[in-house]
Amino acid sequence: xxxxxxxxxxxxxxxxxxxxxxxxxxxxxxxxxxxxxxxxxxxxxxxxxxxxxxxxxxxxxxxxxxxxxxxxxxxxxxxxxxxxxxxxxxxxxxxxxxxxxxxxxxxxxxxxxxxxxxxxxxxxxxxxxxxxxxxxxxxxxxxxxxxxxxxxxxxxxxxxxxxxxxxxxxxxxxxxxxxxxxxxxxxxxxxxxxxxxxxxxxxxxxxxxxxxxxxxxxxxxxxxxxxxxxxxxxxxxxxxxxxxxxxxxxxxxxxxxxxxxxxxxxxxxxxxxxxxxxxxxxxxxxxxxxxxxxxxxxxxxxxxxxxxxxxxxxxxxxxxxxxxxxxxxxxxxxxxxxxxxx
Length: 342
Fold this sequence. Notes:
The chain has 342 residues and is α+β, with helices and mostly antiparallel strands. The protein has helices spanning 9-15, 142-145, 162-169, 270-301, 317-334; strands at residues 20-26, 35-40, 43-49, 55-59, 73-74, 78-80, 87-89, 94-96, 113-114, 116-119, 122-127, 149-158, 194-199, 202-207, 217-222, 226-232, 244-254, 257-267. The protein is globular and about 70 Å long. The two termini are 30 Å apart.
């Protein structure tokens, strides 16, 4: 059953946490009048953009015989199942059964429909459970809501557990090694000490002896959706705007695949905004994809049980804190004890 509360803590920890928003795919993946089958949290969903431009997200299962609605026909504000023509609107309500008009299926909400919202060029959806179907309040990351900030969304899918992608972001020290040949991460010491600094919405994991040189800090935020913010120093040759920021999110596709979302941003306006965007598209973007490729290669090369056979040290405090938070959430959502890990 979709949105079941009967899942174990281990299943939730592997496939993604409930009762919060997750990014699903970039907005341009679903054009007006189009539809797309997506997998999120290990479940099959149908995204379709109605004729008015609005989005709907339905469980990809016809309530009649279970055929995928994603194989059906887009009728503007509803989908007609290919198998028997049963029509379902964006709320999951059966509007018509052509084979037997007036039958008792009509007028019933028989397909799960998720709340959706678009922000920063991405589609976000609220994944609740049977006890928490109504969406929690969503506060967007400041860089996605500030009109003075210019951002580019970079999206990719990696064959890694979603936790590995998030843990990678809570591990600033890897920048000095994995990305040592990057045009922005070559500087700074390869030794450091870290601390956790609590905030009202999460925590900072930061170097205590270096700032503004490399990937020196990261903030984890819980604002209805989980996201991280970090800053990387940029030379004047990279254009106006000062430090270069990244907002990162991850969508659990299933237990072994993750959609990663990275918004690269700078606070610029006027002609400086135009200059920055031109430089990014013509010069900087390719270099950033090279850095992301390094992350993908190392994470996809790790075994699925990598987080169960480790010997951690002080630099891993941010990762340990993240795991404890997520294991506790998975345990609460299953009604059981926290999920097991390393």
